[in-house]
Specification:
methionine biosynthesis; binds adenine; MTA_SAH_Nsdase; adenosylhomocysteine nucleosidase activity; 5-stranded mixed β-barrel; glycosidase; adenosylhomocysteine nucleosidase
């Protein structure tokens, strides 16, 4: 069974409309919709916004539903010039851009391994940190654009994604992120939290992000318009092709 998460109902509504044999379970203030989507058994849930909400939802999915993969689908703010609204990013590495526990860990380092600084008091060791990001290892990473998507006009790229509990809507913040995490293609608020939980439970996962805005001054308007109109149709098209 595949667990499918979005942050908002708007991002998943088109999938809910197609879901058959639906049964609903309520846990932790969220509805989990089990059913069949394109002949595949799935459980759909919207996590709500942010890393805490998406981590809690992912943990619940893994522990209480019999799933063998997780797909997160939603929108993101593109921060590279060549990425336009409507393009799609398949997550490659997931960063938590607001995670900074220096000097105990490197900037962005996810506290998974033991705290080397507290053990050794030696800051040189910190440079060998291996958990600044989580690698995506779901099905999507190994497929080509044309295999995965039945859409050819928008670009589909494999790229690094940075998550944080912030809606980014300023050129200064984009410049700051580009300096600190230069491979980042887009920003959102959940993916890296889902990635960390999946890593900790050894659960295959994919993060798919459709660019709804360019994280600039116009981001709030673009984001709302995109999320309310076509975001979930993208999710529908992408998953239809994936399950076919
Ligand atoms: N999700 C969609 N657009 C976003 C943005 N600009 N910042 C954070 N999360 C987003």
């Amino acid at each position: 069974m595949t667990g499918i998460i979005s942050a908002m109902q708007e991002e998943i509504q088109a999938l809910l409309n197609q879901l058959e044999n639906v049964s609903t379970t309520k846990k932790g203030m969220r509805e989990y919709y089990c059913g069949t989507l394109f002949n595949k058994k799935v459980v759909l849930v919207f996590s709500r916004w942010g890393k805490v909400a998406s981590a809690a939802t992912t943990t619940q999915l893994i522990n209480d539903f019999n799933i063998d993969e997780i797909i997160f689908t939603g929108v993101a703010g593109g921060i590279k010039e060549h990425l336009n609204i409507g393009d799609v990013v398949i997550g490659k590495h997931l960063y938590q851009h607001d995670l900074d526990a220096r000097p105990f860990y490197n900037q962005f380092e996810i506290p998974i391994l033991k705290n080397k600084y507290l053990e050794t008091k030696d800051t040189t060791n910190l440079l060998n940190a291996t958990h600044n990001f989580i690698d995506c290892y779901g099905e999507f990473v190994s497929k080509t654009e044309a295999e995965v998507f039945d859409i050819y006009a928008p670009k589909v790229i494999l790229g690094d994604i940075a998550s944080g509990d912030q809606f980014i809507s300023s050129l200064e913040k984009i410049a700051h992120l580009n300096k600190l995490l230069p491979t980042t293609t887009c920003v959102e608020m959940e993916g890296a939290a889902v990635a960390q939980i999946c890593y900790e439970y050894n659960m295959p996962f994919s993060i798919i992000r459709i660019i709804s805005d360019k994280a600039n001054d116009n981001a709030t308007i673009d984001f709302a318009r995109f999320a309310n109109t076509i975001a979930s149709n993208y999710a529908l098209g992408i998953l239809k092709n994936y399950f076919a």
